[in-house]
Structure formats: structure tokens, C-alpha cells
Amino acid sequence: MSNQIKVKPNEQEITKMYQEIMNACRRGINDSKGSPSHELGVAVFRKYFGGSNPVLDINEPIVGQKGFTPLAMAAYFKKDVEIKALLELGAKSNLEIQEQKITALHISATQGSPVACKLFLDAGHQVDHQSKLLETPMMRGCQAGHMEVVSLFATKNANIKIKNQDGKDCIEIAKDNLHFNIARFLDYTYLNKSLNDKIEKKSTSKI
Predict the structure, then answer these.
(1) Helix 38-49 × helix 11-25 angle, to 10°
(2) What domains are there in the chain, each with its CATH number?
(3) What number of other Cβ atoms are within 10 A of residue 135's Cβ?
(4) pLDDT digits (tens, 9 = 90+) for 111-143
(5) CA distances (Å), 13 to each of 7, 9, 22, 95, 119, in order?
(6) Residue 187: CA atoms inside 13 Å, Cβ hemisphere, count?
(7) How many whole angstroms separate alpha carbon 197 and alpha carbon 176?
(8) pTM, entire model
(9) Which of 168, 115, 167 is nearest to 143 (CA)?
(10) 3-state SS, residue 36
(11) Cβ(71)–Cβ(93) under 8 Å?
């Protein structure tokens, strides 16, 4: 039995594929009842990105979407099921995109999606990954006022003392954007953590 040669799609076909992928990323494909379906979207991902010889590179930007990859786009639209499917198909969560060199984790932090943030961290994304502007995902969460995201990063020991290119750390960013509850939370959480670490270190030295 002869091996089938896969014909490379032309530019028009690729554009059409990416339109389908874009709809899948934002859960814009409807089922027979007219309801948005994540199952149909995931099927699109598997069609183009699955198998040993995928039709398209899952980590390449979507045509016409300003450098956003499928994973970054799903993060922007806060579609957790689609994010999980893309990660399982080999999407790289720490891939830097656009001129600012942000990652999907930065996007999910900005959008306020703790579930997506946890998916990226579980996939091995560094919690303190800095963009070209030296922003961490925690800074993005502080700026946008997303307490659940900030709390998640705190449990992952995010470094709140890192400074962005303007010389601001997480607490200063939270205050600048009038998210004083987040600033207080970080002050309290990291003060307690520091005290507990000192107590634990002191106890260990006595043994």
C-alpha cells in the first residue's frame, strides 16, 4: 500500500482554516440547537493540530490576529475548556507574543480567569515570567483588580517585589489603580509568609 502524500494547503485554504480556528477559540461554533459548542470547537483543534503530522502549527499566530496564537486567543476570550484542549495538543503556554512579549498567562491574568491561570501554571509556566515591559502576570492581575487571580499567584509564591520598567512593584501597581483591597491582601499575606518563614527557620536551627 503506497503512502499518501499530504498536499500543502494554499493561502486561501489556510485563511479559511484559521477563520474556523478563530471561531473555535471564542466558542463561536453552534451545535444543531443553535447553542455555542465547545465540543465542536475542540474537534476543530484536533482536525488541524492533532495527529503525528498536523495540518497547521499550533504555536503559529492566527492569520490577521496581531500575533495572537490560538492559545492566546482562547485565553483572551476566557475559554477554559478550549485552553485545556490546546495545551493537550501541544500549545506552548510560555510562548511570547506581540512586541510586548506577553504570554497567555499574562492575558488570562488581565482578563481575570483564575482557572485558565492555573491551567498554565500546571503546564509548567513560570509564575514570574516577565514581558518586554518587565511585567509579571501578578502585576497584570493587580492592575486589573482581579483578586482571585492575585490570590492564586500568591499561593504559587509569586515574587511581588519585582519591578516593572517604571520601577513599580505589585503593591504599588494595585494602589495606583485604586485596588487597595489587593494591596492590603498582598501586604498581609506576604508579611505573614515572611514571619512564618523566619519562625520555621529558627525552629529548624534549634533541632
Answers:
(1) 140
(2) 1-92 (no CATH), 96-207 (1.25.40.20)
(3) 24
(4) 999 999 999 999 999 999 999 999 999 999 999
(5) 11, 6, 14, 26, 32
(6) 11
(7) 29
(8) 0.89
(9) 168
(10) strand
(11) yes
